[in-house]
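#structure-requests
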Amino acid sequence: MMNIHKINFCFLSILLLVLAAACQRETTKRPNIVLLLADDLGHHELGAYGQQVIQTPHLDALAAKSMRFTNFYAGNSVCSPSRAVLLTGKSATRVPIRGNAGFFGDDKWEGVYLDADTFTLGEMFKAANYQTAFVGKWHLDDPDTPATWAFGHGFDFAAQEQWSARFGKRDFNKPGLWVNGDQNYIPYDFKEHDCKDAFYTDTAFEFLDQREQDKPFFLFMSYRAPHSFEGPIRDTLSYAKTDWPKVEQAQAAKVTLQDQQVGRLLDKLASTGELDNTIVLYTSDNGAHFLDNNGHDLEFFNSNGNLRGGKRDLYEGGLRVPLLVYWKDKIAAGSTSDHISAFHDLMPTFADIIQTEKPAQTNGISFLPTLLNKAQEKHGFLNWELQLSGWFQIISNGGFRQAARMDKWKAVRYGIDSDIELYDLSTDESESQDIAADHPAIVQQFDEIFENERDNTAGFPYGGVKQDYKSQDKYTNKNGNFEKIN
């Protein structure tokens, strides 16, 4: 007769194997997450948000299967601080980056980066046993320190753009993608691709083809369009035949070409059977750019609809951005949400979805209940701070901007010595009627938010830096190196 202890041991071994297999199946059931981030896309530059001229058929089709958010906000109104909010889950007045450049004395305005110890979405997903990939524009690093690049922040596969720091040592002034820090470099040739986003999509396919099939993945596609400095594109569309200004032909082409790349990526996921178990999010890092050096005007295509302002503004046109969220059989197709949320809510939302602990650093609120049509916790307020750079422009009032939203109320202050403007977004979405004089108690609440709901951070003094000159005029550029003029 078999020894009872041996029977028990065999039973226990089998049980452990069954449990291990079940755990493995549970791991593979967790959804993949694909985050698609446009660069300077306006709130109304997609057909699904009211665009009438620029063609976005793939994104419109995605919107028809998704939840479309109408009160979603970027982390800030310019790329570096906005992306810092997204990656860290800290709101605009808590994250250390408040502008594309900080002030460090001696007329120096330099980029500020997330240091190597900063915990990001990449690390959160990696700790949850997700494969992680980043492709495109990072804009959160010290170019001379690869440990601050995407690969150093939890992304197993990282292919990012890079350019030289203003006062840096390394020369990165060539288009392409740096892979896994500076381990490898892939040059970009616009003659071989319609646009940079096509190049990025090809690179993302390399990750998708080489990944482990039994593990979920997080893919962050940080697109380049329709940013004004993308570089040359090949307009293979009909826009080149219009009588529009060349810069507007290019603007429309960049948006539509990006739409095509989203379609390619979704087709790729569908062909491998992954799309049914993938959550797809599409948004923009800030509002539409306007009247740039090339002459583009955001009003030409009504890029922000009736929203006031654009990129670098803290009015709605600079902050409110599209958000589409697709999740088959989980999110009601074609649904719309007016829930007020922002970039710092993505980290806790993702944490809920992948069933990992919400990082203590985030002050965001998960909007997973909204996605699943359940009761949703709301923010008491959202607030932002922005510091304009004094390198390229005169900022006689300090270049310091603040805004906050509290339910239907929106407050804006450009310069701490200026009066607070107040708008009722429920009746005045375009922020055309300042009603601060009629609501002093509400204005006082916003004043307290502006003064108290924030952290100090190096390079971005409260109130800004008043300059009646451009700092670049104090320097000379010798072979790519800036030297102070005596």
